[in-house]
């Protein structure tokens, strides 16, 4: 899982 | 999720809601850069296209929808409902000077060369400079009767809390998004300028106009 590409931030 | 997110996340929409209420109450959007608000609407539109492809949490989805709704409501009030009070003559920043280079850079520097990812990157870069038309307008007119201390406070607060959030995530989750951090840093610097302009031009102007 690429943590960066999930974009969980707003 | 660390505490800096549930406090930082609502700060930007809070700033926008304050702006919305101010426009609504005074029936005027004088002093507000419609271009900056238009850019923010574009920012949230291009950033949250992931809503259609991935689900993170109910919190995440609802916050994104709130961001989008608030930014479009502001644009609607400025360009439609209270168009007559919009100070277009002073809102002369050329947005293509921002959108075109930002678009170019997001093609060149991104995490992944895919349409959604490039649009996300575009939105991150654009958000960092979206306040420039507003800055330009304040520096020209030296007045922002409708940009309140509160709008400014919440915008700066959201930046500050996100910076702490990134430091937190770097140390405790090993999470580090260089693009978001650099763009966030640039944005913070511009907001410091916004704050400086506010102190020197706006507050000074207010002081001078006070009845003796």
TrEMBL record, chain B:
Name of the featured protein: ER lumen protein-retaining receptor
Q: Which spans are transmembrane here?
A: 38-59, 65-82, 119-138, 150-168, 174-197
- Which keywords are on file for this protein? Cytoplasmic vesicle, Endoplasmic reticulum, ER-Golgi transport, Membrane, Protein transport, Receptor, Transmembrane, Transmembrane helix, Transport
Q: Which InterPro entries match?
A: ER_ret_rcpt
Q: How does it sit in the membrane?
A: Multi-pass membrane protein
Say yes or no: keyword Protein transport present.
Answer: yes
An example of a Pfam family matching this protein is ER_lumen_recept
Tell whether GTP-binding is among the UniProt keywords.
no
């Amino acid at each position: 899982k690429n943590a960066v590409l999930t974009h969980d931030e707003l | 999720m660390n505490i800096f997110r549930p406090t930082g996340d609502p700060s930007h929409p809070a700033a926008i809601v304050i702006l919305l209420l101010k426009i609504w109450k005074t029936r005027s959007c004088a002093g507000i850069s419609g271009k900056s608000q238009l850019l923010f609407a574009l920012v949230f539109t291009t950033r949250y296209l992931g809503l259609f492809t991935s689900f993170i949490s109910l919190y995440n989805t609802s916050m994104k929808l709130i961001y989008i709704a608030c930014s479009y409501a502001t644009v609607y009030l400025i360009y439609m409902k209270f168009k007559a009070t919009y100070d277009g003559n002073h809102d002369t920043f050329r947005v293509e000077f921002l959108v075109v280079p930002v678009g170019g850079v997001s093609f060149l520097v991104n995490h992944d060369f895919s349409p959604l990812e490039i649009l996300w990157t575009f939105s991150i870069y654009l958000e960092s400079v979206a306040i420039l038309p507003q800055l330009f307008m304040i520096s020209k007119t030296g007045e922002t009767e409708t940009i309140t201390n509160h709008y400014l406070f919440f915008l700066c607060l959201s930046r500050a809390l996100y910076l702490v959030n990134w430091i937190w995530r770097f140390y405790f989750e090993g999470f580090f998004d260089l693009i978001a951090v650099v763009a966030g840093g640039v944005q913070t610097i511009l907001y410091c300028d916004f704050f400086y302009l506010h102190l020197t031009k706006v507050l000074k102007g207010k002081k001078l106009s006070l009845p003796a």
